[in-house]
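Exercise (ungraded).
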Amino acid sequence: MDRDNPAVSAYTIGLRLGWYGLLAVPLLFLLVFYFYPLASILWVSLAPDGQPDLSSFGRLILSPYYRETLWFTLWQAVLSTALTIGLALPGAYVFTRYRFPGKRLLMALTALPFVLPTVVVAAAFSALVGSNGIINNALERLFSLETVPIQLERTLALILIVHVFYNYTLALRMITGYWANQNTRIEEAARVLGSHGWRLWWEIRLPALRPVLLAAALLVFIFTFTSFGVILILGGVRFATLEVEIYRQTVNYVNGLPMAAALSLVQIVIMGAALIVYTRLQRRVVVDLQSAESVARQPRTRGEKAFVTATLVVIVVMLFTPLLALVIRSFTGTEGFTTEYYTALGQNSRNSVLFVPPSTAIRNSLLFALVTTALSVFLGFIAAYLLTRRARWLDPIFMLPLATSAVTLGFGLFIALDSPPLNLRRSPLLVVIAHTLVALPFVVRSVVPALRSVPAPLREAAATLGAPPWKVWLWVDLPLISRGLVVGATFAFTVSMGEFGASTFVARPDTPTIPIVIFRLLGQPGAVNYGQGIALSVLLMAVCAVSFVLIERIRTAGVGEF
Amino acid sequence: MTKPFPLLLLIVLCLAPVPLRAQEDTLTVVTYDSFAISEEVQDAFEEQSGVILEILRLADVGVMVNQAILSKDNPLGDVLYGIDNTFLSRALNEDLFVPYGAEGLADIPEEFQLDPEFRVTPVTYGDVCLNYDVNYFEENDLPLPESLEALTMPDYEGLLVVQNPATSSPGLAFLLTTIAVFGEEGDYTYLDYWRDLIANDVLIVEGWTEAYYTHFSAPGRDSGDRPLVVSYASSPPVEIYFADPAPETAPTGAIVADNTCFRQIESAGILQGTDNLEAAQQFMDFLLSVTFQEDLPLQMYVFPVNPAAELPDLFVEYAAVPEVAVTLPYEDIEANRERWIQEWTETILR
Amino acid sequence: MLTVEQLHHAFDRQPVLRGINLSIDEGEIVCLLGPSGCGKTTLLRIIAGLEKPISGDVKLNGSSIVPVPVHQRDFGLMFQDFALFPHLNVAQNVAFGLRMKPLSSAEQRQRVQEVLKLVELEGYERRSVTEISGGEKQRVALARSLCPRPRLLMLDEPLGSLDAALRQRLILDLKQIIKSVGLTAIYVTHDQQEAYTIADRIALMNAGQIEQIDAPASLYHRPHTRFAAQFLGLENIVEMQAWRSSQFNERYTPPDHAGQAKAVLLHPAGLTLAEKDTPGTLPVIVVSHMFQGRFYTIEVEIEGLRLRLDPPSSRNSVPHVGEEVGLRIQPEAVLWLD
């Protein structure tokens, strides 16, 4: 027989080793590009002279200022989470139970806020509700007011609104995905037994949704706990989360690194715990891909129609009016309608080396995004395989980069990867790596549920037909989860397009991306510069919107855990 | 069937170590993100020296200095450009730079020469000053505030927007101005002054962009309702530079009264460990040359330290330079900055 | 050809196989029959290589195959729900196993055609497997397993999800196809009718052990254990104690080899009813009767024992409930159970 032939068995051993090697790649990636840099920066910060100095932890615990920061971080996250879930629940109900025109398009576009950089979102909100924003101006004109009627800037209310704006799509997608696959017989049985109205919600629906509600809440909590730009730019100076404080410590105080490291560690520990719970919960929210049979129908009674309309209006107003305000603003000059900002984007009026034509920024962004997508899909697919088949406990670890301060990570990458063979400090690859670290959790979360829903007998059938594990993976798993992969890839792409955190803290030769150019434009005096920043934000938004509409055409309802 | 091999190939290619471009003929300048020079000026240097200029950008000055310190044993580049007097002390203490007396340094006024050991070379200066909305003050027939004290008067209640010193460079400069003027001890300290500012409804925001675009009332149509903002003495000419069509009169102005502006001096230095010392020295010389110095105002909105450099008409006409600008010894700034910001934060924000 | 020796297996310390011994000859169809949870599917998965046993051995032609990974065993396995690849069409599904072999695409195509012809699915090549009927799926799954010419074909409840009428027809087709190819096969089912139809021998399993291995007719007519009898629906079991004190004991003395017997089965196939007081019969009272189509189920009572028998239905009248009749027991219908 073949397998007794030594040459053949050496070949099989080689194949098997290659296979295990491949499985180790994502772990290695995390080890080299996440844990090693993180450990380096923490070590350098906490042990500047080679001796660990933990006094910053003492200051952290003793100072009321840091305790208050932690407390604020916590309760604003809890409040944001409660609001997001509370608002997403009726939305998810409407998306699960009713059909209406434009449903898929609307679902696709709800993801738009999630990937926009904070500078853009801040500009959008000030264009809408700022003291000279569209709403206030309209109200002032309407009622000839002297004072600004809506004062939202630098209030907790605005922080909460923007957190809902950012995270709504996560909650909506997770809950809808789960709900659409729930057996409606249970609810029908309850109805036959006389349950209706609030009792139906309280006794049947909410308990059935509990796992997904908890998972969604935890995810939103994680995102709002680590909120950075929203707090920094929109919250104003009175508010600081851990992440903002880490940034302030690192950027402003040349002696702030030990405290920044201590704060980073605290954040990582808290988020790590949250992620462990989250990934556990997530496992219970398995969606059966094969039986996604739609229970959605047209709203019939007047009450139903009113409910559906009202819910959709809330969603549209909440998510899209700020973006619309941004678009309007980009076309509004000193004398009304203008396209000057868009045309100015292409002109190097100062003949400066700082000038970046939008085509270059878009090209850079696209290039980074494509490489990031390829890399994170490749790694994410292997990681998802690892997580579903071999080592479930690794799951929270792959999510950890999401919960790590961008400043800490950027500095870590900078000091860790500074010598051959990994001297990447000046390489644009470092940007790709930073983007991939952030994009990887999204790919993993999109692919894992798809992989979990591939029935085991399919793999066993392939194996009995003679397929070795890697062929099973390539010929059975891969095509079956291709939709999950496409969703993950799109997330990776847009996350990379909008990323403005870790990548700004790594040194780079001049390869500015769209968010960086936006940031530069907004950082200079002159109305035209500001207008250009807004116009470029609108272009970025358009690129993301197109990608989202494209994936919505391929994805099945509810694929993806996000 | 899916073909993963092109993808794999791509990944392998991407992960392959990129050859470092540390050739003799490249000079790497590490700087902040908004560093800008004209293409002709860059070409002129490259032609004259025969080296290619590579500009490596970091997010901002604080990030740049911190990263330069963290990487001092294995420096990122040959020259560090853009370190200002608020960050200078730490950089000097960490022994980041190779001393070099650049050609033309002798002609630079004494006040800009921060380091007697020539470890850093001053290149630009700029003043952080109050900017005002010309229209507002004309229409309301209000005199301009000519001192910091004036800002606590009822006339100016609710008119000023400033930046958080913890996160903004002009914000820090303004805080330092108040510290220099009012001091930390005595009957009326800088914190007392800030309490009065708060009582007079000053608005504190996180950064320059929000203050200038969102809350300052003059530029553009999307502006806010506060006619006074902490910005730069160079902001008014820049405002006109970017206006299209150019306005007949300046919409904004800078207040350059004595003891109201803080002077920021930006320096550059040759990084320890450079393997391109000669080119680095050439570049330092070039920074002080008239060619480079005259390019500064319209690229980075700062003033040249070289008195021989002519200012562009726009600056001559619209930019004012304070006679007596406030400054603090950089050693003091470094030694106290964290404490000052902390005190300010705890007193004013909480 | 295939032997299983002293096989033990457990899940979470819960034993599922307890010392299985089994040997299968070339060209034979052996059926693993038993209730759910008896370990039959686990045994099949161990033979297939999908599970590694805790102890014991599986040998193919004398050499152990336990260390051989599943994809190198050249076995075919048909799954309960067929496990067709939803992303591939009929021909691609069938060709899947061939693509693991060094065959030219022309050879592959030819072989797929051959097998599709065998299962009478010519013309279905490009159909999607999600759009064909249950019976067609079953045949695609069979074709897929047969296509790479496996050394052993295993079928795990391959008709489980189909309706009864379809099952009856397909099981005959299945047997005919397997026999025509001359394959050795292991067939797992919980349905005794299926087992009778397809198997050369049936291994009846219970709680991780094989209770009895026999040809279908022998198994049905001579179950050795109480479990076997009950599982096959033979319920006229009289406890030894009750038997000893009854009038049966005098007529049918246990043979020597039944010394350990714990109960006696009165096989319904050997029970008939006669007029009351017919010589050679025992007097019984009819307790219930039910019309079942081709036969009746009649329950009679004697000395407090209830016995069931299934006489063929005919137009003749049947005794009514409460009537006294005579019960005739053929000697070979008295079986001593362990």
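Further reading is listed at the end of the chapter. For now, observe: DSSP finds ten helices and 18 strands in chain C. The CA atoms of residues 50 and 328 of chain C lie 51 Å apart.
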